[in-house]
Write a structure and sequence with these properties.
Elements: H1 3-6, H2 16-37, E1 59-64, E2 70-72, E3 75-77, H3 82-91, E4 96-101, H4 107-120, E5 125-127
Parallel strand pairs: 1-4, 4-5
Antiparallel strand pairs: 1-2, 2-3
Helix pairs in contact: 3-4
Amino acid sequence: MTARAQFQPMSQLNITPLIDVLLVLLVMLILTIPMATQKVSIDLPVGADPARPTPPEKMHRLDIAATGALMLDGAAVDEAALPARLAPLVADSEALLTIDADAQSRYDTFDHVLATIKRAGVTRLGFARNESFTDF
């Protein structure tokens, strides 16, 4: 056999690296889809006239500090005791809970508090100072 006969080009395409890359992309897709679809759904009240909202008589405020500390109507409260403190708000159909989160607070803390509020049964919920999040 001559040297020229030994070094002829292959006529078949090697697709093994392509399959490896596709399998890695498939695994990454499978791992990231559940994280993107997790959410806490809240039914927010709809006002009659958004240009001139009327503040309710019984407004309660929940502050979330940058450190993660919670304050309900100016009194410190931890997340475990929050459902018990929200029980009177649930019983009163006129009460409105307003969440005021610091712009530097962690989203994880906000998400946990929002889930706790939903599990407690609060249906009248508002958000204060949303304009502080426009720079992110």
